Amino acid sequence: MNTEKMDHQKIVKSLEASHFIKITNNGNWLENHAIIYAKEIKNTIFLLFVVSESKGKIEDIRALIAQFDDVGNIGKHEPEQILFYLSIRKKNDLHYFEKFMEIHD
Questions:
Q1: Which of 8, 13, 50, 97 would give a disulfide with 62, using CB separation of 3.0 to 4.6 Å?
Q2: Superkingdom, according to UniProt (predicted)?
Q3: From CA 27, how far away is CA 68, in angstroms rounded?
Q4: Triad 67, 74, 5: Cα angle to 5°
């Protein structure tokens, strides 16, 4: 079983290259220093990657598929509903997420 840690910086660079919108968390449903990368995948349904940092180092990345009334509400208000949630800590976690996205594409 592959339990290698993820290269978090590589994931962030990939999100930026994939035209995700970078949003600073200004609400209270995530921790204060979270950065959100969002992309609309269906009308009002967004794929989010939430990146938590501490002292300039990426601590955690979570993937969510969530519904928001408007992209402007991301980072300000809680989602209407969360359809999928995954904490990405190991390479296998990212692999499972990629498989999920292929099935539901």
A1: 50
A2: Bacteria
A3: 14
A4: 90
Closest CA to 5 of 100, 87, 103: 87
CA dist 90 and 105 (Å) reads 23
pLDDT in tens, 16-47: 888 899 998 888 888 877 899 999 999 999 99
Q: CA–CA separation, 53 vs 60, rounded Å?
A: 7
pLDDT tens, 39-70?
Answer: 999 999 999 999 887 766 677 889 999 999 99
Q: Which of 6, 103, 105, 3 is nearest to 49 (CA)?
A: 6
Give me 2's structure tokens.
């592959």
pTM for this one? 0.80
Find how far residue 59's CA is from the centre of its chain.
13
CA distance 11 to 49: 10
